[in-house]
Amino acid sequence: MPVSAAPSVRPAVPSSVPLRVTVGEPTGVEVDPDLWGIFLEDLNDALDGGLNAELVRNGDFEFSHADRPGWGPLTGWRSSGDGAVEVHVEDPVHPNNSTYVRLVGPVELTNDGYDAIAAREGDRWRLDLFAWRVSGPGEASAVIAADDGQVLAETTLATEPGGWRRVVADLAATRDGAGQLTIRVPDGLTLEIDVVSLRPLDDDGRVLTFRPDLLSALRDLAPSFVRFPGGCLAHGLGLANMYHWKETVGPRHVRRQTFNTWGYHQSRQIGYLEYFELCETLGATPMPIVAAGVCCQNLRGRARAIPMEEMADYVQDVLDLIEFANGGQDTTWGARRAELGHPEPFGLRYLGVGNEDEITDEFRARYRLVADAVAREHPEVVVIGTAGPQPFGRDFEDGWVYARAEGVAVVDEHAYRTPRWFHQNLDRYDTYPRDGGQVYVGEYAARTSTVRSALAEAAFMVALERNGDVVRLASYAPLLARVGHTQWVPDLLYFDATHVLRTASYHVQQAFSRQRGTAVHAVELAGAGVEGVPVAPWGGGVVRMSAPGAVVGLADVAIDGAAAGATLPSEAGDEPVTLGTVGASAVVELTATRRGGSEGLVLTIGSEDSRDQIDVRLGGWQNKTTSLNVQWDGISNDVDGPTAWPGLRTGEPVRVRLETDGPRVRVWVDGELRHDHVLDERPERRVVAGALSRVRSEVDDAGAAAERPEYVVRLVNASDDARAVRVDLPVGSGAVVAGEVELLAGAGPEDGRPFEVSPVAPVRSSLSGRGGFDIELPPWSFAVAVVAER
Ligand code: AHR
Fold this sequence. Notes:
Blueprint: E1 4-8, E2 17-30, E3 36-39, H1 47-51, E4 77-80, E5 84-88, E6 100-104, E7 107-111, E8 117-119, E9 124-135, E10 140-145, E11 151-157, E12 165-172, E13 177-185, E14 190-200, H2 212-219, E15 225-228, H3 232-235, E16 258-260, E17 264-266, H4 272-282, E18 285-290, H5 311-326, H6 332-339, E19 350-353, H7 361-377, E20 382-386, H8 394-406, E21 410-417, H9 419-424, E22 438-446, H10 451-466, E23 471-476, E24 480-482, E25 493-495, E26 500-502, H11 504-514, E27 519-526, E28 541-546, E29 550-559, E30 562-563, E31 571-572, E32 577-582, E33 585-597, E34 601-606, E35 613-618, E36 625-632, E37 635-644, E38 654-661, E39 664-669, E40 672-678, E41 687-699, E42 705-717, E43 723-728, E44 736-744, E45 763-770, E46 772-777, E47 781-789
Parallel strand pairs: 1-45, 2-43, 3-15, 3-23, 15-18, 18-19, 19-20, 20-21, 21-22, 22-23, 24-25
Antiparallel strand pairs: 2-27, 4-7, 5-6, 6-14, 7-13, 8-13, 9-12, 9-14, 10-11, 10-13, 16-17, 25-26, 27-41, 28-32, 28-34, 29-30, 29-31, 29-33, 33-38, 34-35, 35-36, 36-37, 38-39, 39-40, 41-42, 42-47, 43-46, 44-45, 44-47
Alpha-L-arabinofuranose binds at residues 41, 230-232, 355-356, 389, 414, 443, 477-478, 488.
């Protein structure tokens, strides 16, 4: 972990609130050594334009309007000169790479890449492409040139007639600068090109697969496993978009490319072999997630399922994947792996089947086929099941019922929630059955890149460790996001062409992952505030309606049974209109008729500044669902739904009734009860501690081998008060303990933003004491102390 050196922990200052942490004996709970891993999905340009070191964008000319409206074969490219650039599809390099370009000289074709290529004198790159010299004299060349035309590196291209030939040439920077790759074709020469690649070479002349600074940031996380390729990407939007691993291995030009669920293009240059190699590089075990034979339900018309008569082939593909990862070279797919350059197996131990799927009969039937086959053929592989997109709700409940009935070993839960939710749910796993499947918290994050959210995650992670007998695995999500190219926030690491921005959440993940323990110890907290920060009871507020993406007419508005005045606006659009003010218990009724647009409406009750409110979304996502959301401090959570709904239709009135009875919120649409939810008013536990021990082997003064416990103590102070903390360890009051502490502190709860570097960085200092240690925890801080008896 990159840390700044600092003298030693500051002594407690008188104004600090005292906190006593008593670490007791082991509880008997052991933490799984695989607990902390990472989640890698190709969204936010995580791969192409990110971890993939490739510098050419759309080098295959395969972008299309299916990726994004307006995109096509020449997206990312521009040309100049009197010649021509023509797009062709006849006689392609490979049927899976069907589009290429013909360059009729004199012409220059420049790739915009992912921002400029940064060059330092001496840097080297490998240019690799397919070319077919069609006619004419002269030689084409490739240059990396700055905007002002200054050439930073160049090479000629030895092309040949008579068919597609691979052309490989190295370029070396002769000066510093930033530029773009241009293919130059002289007057008279006609050349066809495809599969254009430019990758950096390392000091030993090896072509880089992964961008080194991002790779090093991942390595610093010391993950035990890597989950890939998703997320939603794994099951895809439609059967043709489902991720099939075999389509992603082999030479780049034979890989099948497709649109990306997240609105761009999947080149699959990072395919299954590269994912496995990444795991190996990171020293992590691979955790592929395969579709459970159904694609994403968030598709118009809902999920599609692989026909049952085709499931045998699909199941075989999954078994082949395990053989590709683990099989000896005497197996078909182990031999294929060796042929692709990796004779040694990759040691796959986990396989996820499904991602956030709706638990339908179609899902169940197909999940069972895949899981049974893996259990039969590869009992050494742990199959992970799925329990919906949220940590509650119908798919969550049904997913768990199904998993327990089927004896699923581990179930994947997801929680993208507010910091408050995390602080209110630290006991979530305390009551989980210990005999009914373990948990993989496969995707979680507190919104949204602030110190407050990072500390909420730290508190939650303490609770995950404490429940290590039921929580086996966990991974924050998403991992990577290129600034300016994001579909999802928050993310763990932001980056641009030359910088990697570690967030506060990244430092928290790193602190847990790099300092692990094995045995969980009992911990007692004593001091003001340890019982939690009370949550204000629901009190009503201003009633508003808006219709983002639509115009909705309003009629027969009644609040608490009384017709609202004639002065009310008659319709709502993007901007909210105010309908009145209500108390904690209220009834709001109205008739809404869409007059135009394509979306539905939003009805809210909340504070004047709209930071704290409940909102009902009728037609929330593409006008397909209803949901009840709660927003605290400007950060929103869906607390009930989204639940499928036919949608608001132009000209068809709906009668809406929103009723609050203190914390109970109910919503009816045309008389149908759609939401019934009790607001969570439990206190937020923001001062949290956890303790683990591990065995440390040493050689004593007499030269004899000795083993003794080393304690890992985690302290979260997500409050405005500094804490003077006394930690008592189970070592005897006179025993001298010493070690180090890493402290993340120095910023306020709202500091930290998506796309910015963390406002706090870990600072390490030494620590010692008798029977335990004393430490001053600043407001909004997180500390991990590692100490042993001396
Ligand atoms: O992490 C982003 C997305 O969140 C994942 O693809 C999906 O599983 C979840 O909804």
